[in-house]
Amino acid sequence: MYKLSEMEVNNELNYWAKMEICHLPFAMQDLARFCLGDYIATGMSRMVFDWKFTPNTVVKFCKADDCQSNWNEYSVWQTVKDTKNAKWFCPVIDISPCGRFLLMEKDRTITTEDKLPKKLPNFFTDIHTGNFGYIEDRFVCIDYQFISRSIDLSFCTQKQSVNWV
Asked: Contact at 8 Å (CB) between 75 and 68?
């Protein structure tokens, strides 16, 4: 018979204790208020907040039950993070086990004074200023949930002309 180590027991207890808290709606609301900073924006399927515990980090809260938006973004980042195309993407820091919460670096919003690129890689499809920003002086996509995970981003080299509106 297999006996659990002390660390395995503690991990198991920690997991189930957190799961028990999750079943309490008021406790979850309280935890969200405790962890989430200022509200930033809402999109089709997600809400974005500052993350109180780490500066320059945001939380993308997925409103949809399948959390596909967060999982797509996480998957794209995992695919591209060690390639030359990583420079075009705002880095994902972490994702919760169910995908409901995604941590991402916080960008600086585009202003009218910013010079926007005239061309972008052709894997970007949902192109408007609300989906892009700056990390320091680097122009990045902050909402790339619609990029297909089947595209091999590391080999994509063609660019498309952009008319910013």
From this structure: no
Residue ranges of E strands in 17-162 = 36-42, 46-51, 57-62, 92-95, 101-105, 108-109, 119-121, 132-135, 138-141, 159-161
In sequence order, which ranges of 23-147 are alpha helices (DSSP H)? 25-35, 68-80
pTM score:
0.81
115-137: pLDDT as tens digits: 899 999 988 888 999 999 999 99
Which letter, b or e, does each residue of 145-163 get, where b requires 16 or more Cβ atoms within 10 Å of its Cβ? Answer: bebeeeeebeeeeeeeeee
Q: Where are the alpha helices (DSSP H) in the chain?
A: 6-22, 25-35, 68-80
Q: In which residue are the tokens 């660390």 written?
A: 7
Q: Look at residues 42, 58, 40 and name the one whose alpha carbon lies nearest to residue 101.
A: 58
- Asked whether 115 and 138 are in contact (CB, 8 A), the reply is no
